[in-house]
Design goal:
The chain has 11 helices and 10 strands. The chain is an alpha/beta fold. It starts with a helix and ends in a 6-residue tail after the last helix. It binds NADP nicotinamide-adenine-dinucleotide phosphate.
């Protein structure tokens, strides 16, 4: 999902070599070394991940292989070659017990396997190189890939009835906006950890209501439920809003509010027009 939008964003000013599972298995150190040796990049954007949060609880080994060990492979392959690594992590490295937006220096304390694997990946990156931009984002949706927006629309169409959790708060983020902001950070020649989401926050229930409204599906019956009632395999942080002062200070820019980002996204999704101006 994010990888596609990064490729679309960067191709205007860079030569982009996009790689997926068919081209490289990043859990294989030799494949990472070979890819870096042969393509000689200046920047590596790692948007690969084991992103099935509930699935991670059972597939711990696979999850750590992709989200942690593979980051080590990439960092080792890039080390000593003057290559900047841009790596993506998550709000789920935090435990969600806070009551103000998390800043980059806040203590991480993941409460599920996915979050623990992403934190392990962060730590590998930080240990191996200084030449990185580590972007923690959250609640992603985009045109290519499984995401909450599509799940809500599919379920609304199929059943006309939805239950959505109303006690988790975060910031829905459009992958196209995240890709543009990522390029901005690189342009500013920054390094280090940055929090980056669309602005503002809501619960999943509020986000689902917004999705239905934009899709003119207000007639669909939607009920708020508690996280415990949803019976998901993985625990989720109750509050995982990320503060973006560091991004704003580094770039002089902010992100658009999540509501506007979603409206833009949904209009483009349904208009079938090219949208990368
Ligand atoms: N989705 C979110 O809400 C969210 C929130 C915060 C942070 N993030 C982070 O943002 C990044 C992008 O997320 P996303 O939702 O765009 O992910 P995604 O749509 O699930 O895409 C992940 C990609 O990684 C590839 N991949 C998995 N294992 C691989 C391996 N061993 N070698 C090479 N490629 C591999 C997958 O290939 P296949 O499709 O072939 O499996 C897939 O194309 C991830 O690091 C994620 O942790 C996501």
């Amino acid at each position: 999902m994010l990888g596609n939008d990064l490729a679309a964003q960067f191709r205007y000013r860079h030569d982009v070599i996009g790689m997926d599972m068919g081209d490289i298995d990043i859990t294989r150190e030799d494949e990472c070394q070979k890819a870096i040796r042969e393509t000689k990049p200046q920047i590596v954007l790692n948007a690969a991940g084991y992103t099935n949060v509930d699935g991670c609880e059972k597939a711990k080994e696979e999850c750590f292989a992709v989200n942690a060990e593979a980051v080590k492979n990439i960092a080792h392959a890039c080390r000593g070659r003057n290559i900047t690594i841009v790596h993506f992590s998550t709000d789920y490295v935090f435990d969600g017990t806070g009551n103000r937006p998390y800043v980059e220096e806040d203590i991480c304390n993941p409460i599920n396997v996915y979050g623990a694997s992403k934190l392990a990946g962060e730590n590998h990156l930080r240990t191996i190189t200084d030449n990185y931009i580590l972007i923690r984002s959250a609640w992603l949706y985009g045109a290519k890939g499984k995401n909450f927006v599509q799940a809500i629309l599919d379920q609304a169409k199929a059943t006309g009835k939805l239950t959505v959790v109303d006690d988790q708060t975060g910031s829905p983020t459009c992958t196209r906006d995240l890709a543009a902001a990522t390029e901005l950070l690189l342009d500013k020649n920054t390094r280090g950890v940055f929090h980056l989401t669309n602005r503002g926050h809501c619960t999943w229930y509020e986000f689902a209501k917004k999705i239905l409204k934009e899709a003119h599906m207000d007639h669909v019956e939607i009920s708020p439920i508690k996280t415990a009632e949803a019976q998901r395999a993985a625990l989720r942080p109750a509050y995982s809003v990320l503060g973006m002062q560091k991004f704003i200070a580094a770039t002089g820019k902010t992100m658009q509010p999540w509501q506007l980002a979603f409206q833009d996204y949904y209009q483009h999704l349904t208009s079938r027009t090219c949208c990368s101006a």
